[in-house]
Design goal:
By secondary structure, the protein is an alpha/beta fold. Helix content is about 30%, strand content about 20%. The protein has helices spanning about 15, 20-25, 40-50, 70-75, 85, 110-115, 130-140, 160-165, 185-190, 210-215, 230-235, 255-265, and strands at about 1-5, 35-40, 50-60, 80, 100-105, 120-125, 145-150, 175, 195-200, 205, 220-225, 240-245. Helix 3 packs parallel to helix 4 (about 70-75) and helix 7 packs parallel to helix 12.
């Protein structure tokens, strides 16, 4: 159902231009939560992941172009459209990749269920930058991680920028948030049969290519926040503390870059 945009105050467009990420998340009524999938590739991966589309927004030229297959998969939902000049009046539209889809959030799985069938898990502790979260998910999916767990202080992987940077891999790799009361998540994962490794620079850190790490049957790798890294409590609670060897006086990598190196080294054999 193609709907030509004539009134930019139409509340159906709020989800694309006037509601914040926090409002879309709707923590008080999670069943009503939504997110925006951006670009045909990301939308296709969200649909493959079972997410329900609510409406689409795109330039008129994309209806029979870049979005044709997306529209065909989405069934009878509203397709809001106009030319580029008109859509640019919607806040932020000109920064997107042309085709947007409002989708309903699905209930998050339980962390125990995610851990049950995994061998390699990435744990993000208070990683707050959506770009970093998205990049870590892309590396996790590409480099052999089975799942991603996030502490409550992390940015939501379904925020528009995270999902876009991940190239839709947030819809391909299992993930969930750890419970608010799970203050000792290394202990939680140990009870699930995992050894835990904290990526941190300490005097006790072993190299990421230590054979003992690769030999672990089930391993969870912890990545910390952009500024402070992992908490001291987390480092102390993990079975290993590991580092990536550096050269030329460089002391560390951005958390997203470090994740790619670590995932490759510790990938499933």
């Amino acid at each position: 159902m193609v709907i030509e945009i004539t009134d930019f105050s139409d509340p159906n467009l709020d989800v694309y231009a006037r509601l914040t990420e926090a409002q879309l998340l709707n923590r008080f009524e999670p069943a009503k939560g939504m997110f925006i999938a951006e670009s045909p590739k990301v939308i296709h991966r969200a649909l493959d992941g079972g997410y329900q589309p609510v409406s689409l927004l795109m330039e008129r030229k994309d209806i029979d172009g870049a979005a044709r297959e997306v529209i065909a998969r989405c069934g009878d939902i509203p397709v809001y459209t106009a030319d580029e000049q008109l859509l640019a009046q919607l806040t932020g539209y000109h920064l997107t990749r042309g085709v947007l889809c409002a989708m309903r959030r699905s209930p998050l799985p339980d962390a125990v269920e995610i851990a049950k069938n995994a061998k390699r898990i990435a744990v993000l502790e208070n990683v707050m930058n959506p770009t970093n979260v998205g990049a870590i998910f892309r590396s996790a999916a590409a480099l052999g991680m089975d799942a991603v767990l996030l502490t409550p202080g992390c940015s939501d992987p379904l925020y528009r920028r995270s999902a876009r940077v991940s190239m839709g891999t947030v819809f391909q790799i299992p993930w969930t948030f750890l419970p608010e009361d799970c203050t000792d998540w290394p202990g939680f994962l140990r009870n699930c049969g995992f050894k835990t490794a904290a990526l941190a620079l300490t005097d006790e850190s072993v190299s990421i290519d230590d054979p003992q790490l690769a030999a672990e049957d089930r391993l969870a790798l912890a990545l910390g926040s952009e500024g402070d890294g992992l908490t001291e409590a987390t480092i102390a609670s993990c079975d290993y503390t590991v580092k990536i060897p550096m050269f030329h006086g460089v002391d560390s990598l951005n958390v997203a870059a470090a994740s790619a190196v670590a995932f490759w080294e510790l990938r499933r054999k």
